[in-house]
Write a structure and sequence with these properties.
The complex is a heterodimer of chains A (332) and B (664).
Chain A: H1 6-18, E1 24-30, E2 37-42, H2 45-51, H3 65-69, E3 77-81, H4 83-94, E4 103-107, H5 116-123, E5 127-133, E6 136-141, E7 147-151, H6 158-161, E8 173-174, H7 188-195, H8 198-209, H9 217-221, H10 247-261, H11 270-274, H12 282-296, H13 321-331
Chain B: E1 4-9, H1 13-16, H2 21-28, E2 34-40, H3 46-59, E3 63-68, H4 71-85, E4 92-96, H5 98-102, H6 108-126, E5 136-138, E6 143-146, H7 150-161, E7 166-169, E8 184-185, E9 190-191, H8 192-205, E10 209-212, E11 215-223, E12 226-233, H9 248-252, E13 258-259, E14 268-269, E15 272-273, E16 285-286, H10 292-296, H11 301-305, E17 318-324, E18 326-329, E19 333-335, E20 352-354, H12 355-362, E21 383-390, H13 409-423, E22 428-433, H14 443-453, E23 457-460, E24 463-469, E25 472-479, E26 484-490, E27 492-497, E28 499-501, H15 505-512, E29 539-541, H16 551-569, E30 573-575, E31 581-583, H17 593-597, E32 603-611, E33 617-625, H18 635-639, E34 645-647, H19 652-663
Helix pairs in contact in B: 2-6, 3-4, 6-19, 7-8, 7-16, 13-14
Classes of the chains: A alpha/beta (332), B alpha/beta (664).
Chain lengths: 332, 664
C-alpha cells in the first residue's frame, strides 16, 4: 500500500540516468516470485523499464550496498532510501565507509513492508500473484480458485509495526511527503525479556538461537557489518567458525555480533527480516539501544552524520567507573 | 615453541606462608613450553636473579615466568635480569601470587590452587610473547608548574636554579597562594609574608621563570618529555607589560563594593584591583563582573587616570601554546564549605569564622589591620572558642566532611590560641579537640607552650551546638575527661575547617590522565618509594594537591618534585614504552571508533593505496597510531569492530590465552 507509485520512481530513475546525473541506479528488481525482490545495479534505461519494481516487498536496505558499489565506481549512483534506511546511510557516512559525493540519494516514503513468512503463514504455499486491493493484499495461488484476501496491516514486518521513524534523515531529493519520528513501542518486547528471571531468559534465547543454521544472512545484510575482514572470517581472531559445533557457539556468534554493532546499530531490522529461521535477532540489538538510552541519555545511531556514540566517545567529562557503580542504586 | 623457565618466589613467608611453593613449581613444570621450574626464598635478591640468569644459559630459555609479587613491584627488576641474561626484557611475565593470592587467602590448599592457576595463565601468555623494542623520544627542556602557591614557587625556583626554563600558571591575578593569606607560621611564629614575599620576588626576577597569572591550563596533549599545553590567559583588561602597579586606578575606581576574596569577603575591594601590596606580578586586574565600563560601557575612569595607558577594555582571552618536558601539579587546597555544619551557626552569625578568616583578622595587612575585632560589631572578643576537626575525621555515614585528618589544624589552632593569649592576655581561649596531633620537629613543644606557658584551655571533646543569643554565642560542648557538659558564652567561635583539594584538580587530572583518590587528591606512583611522582610519566606532584601538608612539608616535597623534574630534563632522550597499540591496515575499516575513544589523541588517519587481488588499486582510510603518544591503555583495541587494533605485549590472543588457561 505504498503511497508513491512505482511509475513515479521509475520515471525519476530513468530521467536521472538518461540526463547523466547518475551512472547507475541501485534499486529493487523483479525476482523469481512476486514476493521475491532482489537488489540490483541498473545501468541502462531498458533494464530499468523491464525490471525495476517498487511495492510492498521492497524491504531491502540499500545503504550497505553503497560500500561495495561505490568502491572504484566511476560516476554517481542513484539510491532509493526508505526512512529507516537513511539512518544506516548516515551511520555508514559517520564511519567513513563510502564517499557521499558518489551517491545521489532519493528519499522514498514508506507505509511499511510485508513480512513474507507472515503472509505465507496466512495463505499457505503456492503464491502465484499478489495484488493490492484497498487495505488488503489479494493473493492468488497456483491451486484452482484459490484466492485469499489478507489485510496488509496483519502481515507487516516487525520493524514496520514498531516503526521508529517516517522521517528521512538524509537525502539529496525527497519524493512525496516528509514524515515524523515516531514514539514507537519498540522496547516493549525487550522490557518483557528484562522482567524474566535469568534462567527463563536463558531458556528463551537458548530456544531461539538453537534454530540458527549459521547461514550468516544476518551479518551479510546488517549495514553495521561492513568490516574489511569480519572476525568470523578471520582465523586469527580466535572466534572464527563456519558452523556452530555446540550450543555455546550458537550463542557466541550472535552475542559477539550484538556487541560489535552495539552503539552503531540503527535498529533497521534487516537482521530479523533476512533470518530464514525467524530468530528475533533485533531484540539483542534493541537491548543494547535501550541500555545506552538509559545509561547515557537518548541516542539514535545515524540520526545525524558524525554523531559520537556514547560507547565509543571519550570526553574529559566521562564518569569514573566508581561513579557509575555508585549511581546504580539510585537508578534501580 | 618457547622454552619457558618458571621461577616461584617465597617472598620469605609472605608467599610461602599460604602457598605451597614447591607444589606450584612442580605443577607448572608440566605446562606447555615449560622446560625448567624452580622456587627460591627471594627471587628478587641477587642470588635469585643469578639463578634466573644461570637457568637461561643452562636451559636455553626464551621466556621467563616469575611467580612473585605485583608486577608494579618487580617487573622492572626481572626485565633487567632477562636483559642481563641476554633475552628480550618483554619475554618476562609476572604471575602475581602475593597481593592477589597469598595475602588474600588464609589456607594453603586454596592459596596453592590459585597460585598454580595464575602461573598457568602467565605461562600461556609468555608462550605467545614476542620480543619488543622500545623507541626513543626527545625531551623538551622546559617545565610547567601548575599553581603558584608556595609549592609551585619553590618547585619553579629549584628547577630554574638548575638552569631549566619554567612557566608557572596561576589562576589568581597574583602568585603566593594560601601562604600569602596567613599571618604567622608555626612552629617558629615568623610572619608568612616576610618569608614568602622574597621568594615571590625571586620568581619575578628569575630570567628562567615566566609567570602566567590569571591564567589556566585549557588543554594538555602529548606525553612525557613532549607535552603540548594550551594556556588560557584570561582577559584582565590591563596590559600586563605596561601597568606599573601604581594603584592610582584602584583608588579612583568608583565601584568599591566588591567582596574582597583575598580577605575572604570580610572587606571590600574595587572593581579594578591588585590583590595585595606585594602581589607578583604587581599588575591591576579588572573584575568583569563588577566593572561598570565592561558591563554597560558607563565609566572608563581608570583608563583616564592611568598615566601609563595600560587599561584596555577590549582585551580578549588569549591562548598560548607551549611545549614542556615535565609538568608539576601544585594546585593546592581550600577549606571546605561550612554549609553542611549548621550546628556551628557559621551561616547565622558573623562571629563564627573559619581559621583562614581568623588568619586575615589577625594579619596586619588584613581587614582590621591586625586588631582582633569581632566581624559583627568590631568589639574585642573576651572569650574565644576554637573548634578543631570541623569536617575532618568524619564518619563516612555522616554524609558531610572528610574521613581524613586535615593534618595542619592542630598546629595552626595552637598558634592562633597562643597568639591571642600573647597579644590579649585578658582573653579566655578554649580549644575543643578529638586528639591533638603534633608529630613534627618542634611541634609538640609548641603545643605544650600554648597549654603550659600561655594558659590555653584545651578541652577534649566536641562542640555540639553554637547558638547566637544577643551579642553572645552560646557554645554547648562536652568535656570527655571530666565527663560533663560545658556551656560557654563566647564572643568569637573559630572553626578549624577541613581542607580539600582545589576544585581545578579533578579536570586537570583528567587532562593529564593522572590518577586521583576518592577525595580528589592526586595519587603518587608509590606511597612510600615514589611520593612526588604521579603514575603518569612526566607528571609530578608538589604540595597539598597530593594530601594535606603544612608549609615545611610542602617545601620539602616541592624541592623533591623539582629534583625529579631536573633529573628528567637533564636527559636528552627518553626510552619509550613498547607496549603500545598498532593497527593492522589490512583489516582496518577507517571507521574512527578507535580515534574517538583514545584519551591521548594518539590516533590519526591516512588515505592509503592498496593493491587489490584483481590488480587494481584502491584507496582506503586507515588508522595510524603514534607510538610516542600512545600510553597503551587498550581502549582502542576494545572499540575496534574488526580487531585491526591490537596492543603490543597485551595482544588480544595473549589475553584470551590467559583467560583460557584460567578457565580450563
Amino acid at each position: 500500500m505504498q503511497k508513491i507509485t512505482q511509475d513515479k520512481l521509475l520515471e525519476k530513475a530513468v530521467s536521472l540516468l538518461s540526463n547523466g546525473t547518475v551512472s547507475a541506479v541501485l534499486g529493487w528488481s523483479k525476482g523469481e516470485f512476486s514476493y521475491d525482490v532482489t537488489p540490483k545495479m541498473f545501468k541502462t534505461e531498458d533494464d530499468l523499464k523491464e525490471n525495476f519494481i517498487w511495492n510492498d516487498f521492497c524491504g531491502v536496505n540499500f545503504s550497505k550496498y553503497l560500500v561495495s558499489k561505490t568502491d572504484r565506481f566511476e560516476g554517481k549512483i542513484l539510491v532509493f532510501l526508505k526512512p529507516c534506511d537513511t539512518y544506516s546511510f548516515n551511520q555508514l557516512l559517520t564511519e567513513h565507509r563510502f564517499d557521499r559525493e558518489k551517491v545521489y540519494a532519493i528519499g522514498v516514503p514508506c507505509e511499511g513492508m510485508v513480512d513474507v513468512s507472515k503472509l505465507k503463514a496466512k495463505t499457505g504455499e503456492g503464491i502465484s500473484e499478489i495484488k493490492e486491493d484497498g487495505e488488503n493484499l489479494k493473493v492468488t495461488k497456483i491451486y484452482e480458485d484459490n484466492q485469499v484476501a489478507v489485510p496488509f496491516k496483519d502481515v507487516l514486518l516487525e520493524r514496520c509495526i514498531n516503526c521508529k521513524s517516517k522521517k528521512h534523515v538524509a537525502y539529496d531529493e525527497l519524493m512525496g511527503d516528509e514524515g515524523e519520528v515516531i514514539d514507537s513501542n519498540r522496547f516493549d518486547e525487550v522490557a518483557k525479556l528484562e522482567a524474566l528471571t535469568p534462567d527463563e531468559r536463558f531458556a528463551f534465547w537458548q530456544n531461539e538461537l538453537s534454530r540458527c543454521i549459521r547461514c550468516n544472512a544476518c551479518r551479510d545484510a546488517c549495514p553495521a557489518c561492513t568490516c574489511e575482514k569480519c572476525v568470523f572470517d578471520n582465523p586469527a581472531s580466535g572466534v572464527e567458525n563456519k558452523a556452530p559445533a555446540n550450543s555455546f557457539e550458537e550463542k557466541m556468534f550472535h552475542i559477539i555480533r550484538a556487541y560489535h554493532v552495539a552503539g552503531r546499530c540503527t535498529d533497521c531490522g534487516e537482521c530479523s527480516r533476512v533470518c530464514p529461521q525467524n530468530i528475533p535477532l533485533h531484540l539483542l540489538n534493541r537491548k543494547f539501544i535501550k541500555d545506552i538510552n538509559e545509561f547515557y541519555g537518548e541516542y539514535q545511531a545515524g540520526a545525524e552524520v558524525g554523531s559520537r556514540a556514547p560507547l565509543v566517545d571519550y570526553t574529559t567529562e566521562d564518569l569514573e567507573p566508581g561513579e557509575v557503580f555508585d549511581r546504580r542504586d539510585t537508578d534501580a | 615453541m618457547q622454552r619457558v623457565g618458571v621461577f616461584v618466589c617465597w617472598c620469605g613467608s609472605n608467599i610461602a606462608g599460604t602457598v605451597d611453593v614447591q607444589a606450584v613449581s612442580d605443577a607448572l613444570k608440566n605446562e606447555p613450553g615449560v622446560v625448567f621450574s624452580t622456587n627460591y626464598q627471594y627471587m628478587c635478591s641477587q642470588a635469585g636473579q643469578d639463578m634466573i640468569i644461570d637457568a637461561v644459559k643452562e636451559h636455553n630459555l626464551t621466556g621467563i615466568v616469575v611467580c612473585s609479587c605485583s608486577p608494579r613491584m618487580h617487573e622492572a627488576t626481572f626485565r633487567k635480569t632477562a636483559a642481563a641474561a641476554g633475552i628480550n626484557p618483554y619475554m618476562v611475565e609476572i604471575a602475581n601470587i602475593r597481593e592477589q593470592c597469598s595475602w588474600v587467602h588464609k589456607d594453603i590448599p586454596t592459596g596453592t590452587e590459585k597460585a598454580i592457576i595464575l602461573g598457568k595463565a602467565a605461562v600461556a601468555k609468555v608462550n605467545l610473547n614476542t620480543p619488543l623494542t622500545p623507541g626513543e623520544s626527545p625531551v623538551t627542556k622546559r617545565a610547567l608548574v601548575i599553581g603558584g602557591g608556595i609549592a609551585g614557587i619553590q618547585t619553579a625556583l629549584d628547577i630554574a636554579d638548575a638552569g631549566f626554563p619554567v612557566d608557572i600558571v596561576e589562576t589568581k591575578p597574583t602568585i603566593g597562594g594560601k601562604m600569602a593569606q596567613l599571618d604567622k607560621t608555626f612552629p617558629t611564629l615568623d610572619c608568612a609574608a616576610c618569608i614568602l614575599t622574597p621568594k615571590m620576588v625571586d620568581v619575578a626576577q628569575n630570567e628562567k621563570i615566566r609567570i602566567f597569572s590569571y591564567s589556566e591550563v585549557s588543554e594538555i596533549k602529548g606525553f612525557v618529555g613532549n607535552f603540548d599545553v594550551t594556556i588560557k590567559k584570561n582577559a584582565r583588561y590591563v596590559k600586563e607589560d605596561i601597568c606599573t602597579g601604581c594603584g592610582a586606578c584602584v583608588e579612583k575606581c568608583p565601584m568599591k563594593k566588591v567582596p574582597n576574596e583575598f580577605n575572604l569577603g570580610m572587606d571590600n575591594r574595587s572593581a579594578i584591583y591588585i590583590p595585595f601590596a606585594q602581589a607578583v606580578p604587581k599588575v591591576a586586574t579588572i573584575d568583569p563582573n563588577s566593572c561598570n565600563m565592561l558591563k554597560n560601557g558607563k565609566c572608563g575612569l581608570c583608563a583616564k587616570i592611568c598615566a601609563a595607558g595600560a587599561i584596555d577594555y577590549t582585551q580578549k582571552d588569549e591562548y598560548v601554546n607551549e611545549k614542556y618536558g615535565a609538568i608539576v601539579v601544585a594546585t593546592g587546597f581550600n577549606p571546605i564549605s561550612m554549609d553542611k555544619f549548621d550546628e556551628f551557626a557559621y551561616n547565622q552569625s558573623k562571629d563564627v569564622i573559619t581559621s583562614l578568616e581568623f588568619e586575615r583578622l589577625t594579619n596586619a595587612a588584613g581587614p582590621t589591620a591586625g586588631h582582633l575585632e569581632r566581624p559583627s560589631d568590631g568589639k574585642s572578643p573576651k572569650t574565644i572558642v576554637f573548634v578543631q576537626c570541623v569536617g575532618s575525621r568524619c564518619d563516612s555515614c555522616a554524609q558531610k566532611g572528610k574521613e581524613y585528618c586535615s593534618k595542619i589544624c592542630c598546629m595552626y589552632t595552637a598558634k592562633h590560641a597562643m597568639l591571642v593569649r600573647d597579644k590579649y592576655p585578658d582573653t579566655e581561649v578554649y580549644v575543643f579537640y578529638i586528639d591533638v596531633r603534633t608529630p613534627g620537629k618542634n611541634f609538640d613543644e609548641f603545643y605544650r607552650r600554648a597549654v603550659e606557658e600561655y594558659g590555653v584551655k584545651y578541652v577534649k571533646g566536641m562542640v555540639g551546638k553554637v547558638t547566637p543569643q544577643g551579642d553572645k554565642l552560646k557554645v554547648q560542648a562536652s568535656d570527655l575527661i571530666d565527663n560533663k557538659q560545658l556551656h560557654i558564652d563566647a564572643d568569637l567561635v573559630v572553626l578549624a575547617a577541613a581542607i580539600e583539594p582545589d576544585k581545578s584538580a579533578r579536570p586537570l587530572a583528567t587532562m593529564l590522565t593522572a590518577s586521583m583518590d576518592t577525595n580528589d587528591f592526586f595519587t603518587e606512583a608509590h606511597p612510600k618509594l615514589r611520593p612526588v611522582e604521579s603514575p603518569t610519566a612526566g607528571v609530578f606532584l608538589s604540595g597539598a594537591c597530593q594530601g594535606p601538608k603544612d608549609i615545611p612539608e610542602t617545601v620539602s616535597q616541592a624541592g623533591a618534585a623539582a629534583s625529579k623534574v631536573i633529573g628528567l630534563l637533564a636527559k636528552d632522550k627518553l626510552t619509550g614504552n613498547p607496549c603500545v597499540a598498532h593497527s593492522n591496515e589490512l583489516m582496518c575499516n577507517g571507521c574512527s571508533s578507535c580515534e574517538r575513544v583514545c584519551p591521548y589523541g594518539a590516533i590519526t588517519y591516512e588515505d592509503k593505496e592498496f593493491r587489490m587481488p584483481d590488480r587494481t588499486t584502491k584507496i582506503r582510510r586507515v588508522a595510524l597510531v603514534n607510538p610516542a603518544v600512545c600510553q597503551g591503555c587498550g581502549a582502542c583495541t576494545v572499540a575496534c569492530p574488526s580487531g585491526a587494533m591490537d596492543l603490543n605485549g597485551f595482544a588480544s590472543n595473549q589475553i584470551m590465552a590467559e583467560v583460557d588457561a584460567i578457565c580450563k
